[in-house]
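We modelled the chain as a single entity of 112 amino acids. Its sequence is:
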Amino acid sequence: MNDIIQPILDWSEVWALLIPLFVLMLKRQQPVYMKPVIVYLWLAILLNLSGDIVVQINFFNSRIVYSNNPLYNLHSLIRFTCFAWFFSKIKQHFFFAYQTNSPGNIGRVCNH
């Protein structure tokens, strides 16, 4: 039983991204502000798939040792960049209220 579950868990970072990508394929028309999330999904599946392939290469060929750590580091940078881009694209009033009322902004005038 563990022989069946373990490969599924090992590849979960790949197949978990297939769920939102499948929904994206069904609903092709997305708002413009969702572009950073869509870019992230495609890059994330590519990087996670590459990282898991590197692990499989290391598992089956012990003479060649590759690290998938740079891929995961790149993934973290892309995730941060894409979601920072996403939050800069959406215009949420509560975010502006938070910026205006945060301790660092007390006394400043924000024109939104």
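As a brief sanity check on the tokenised model: Residues 6 and 20 are 23 Å apart (CA to CA). The helical segments are 2-10, 12-26, 35-60, 69-89, 93-101.
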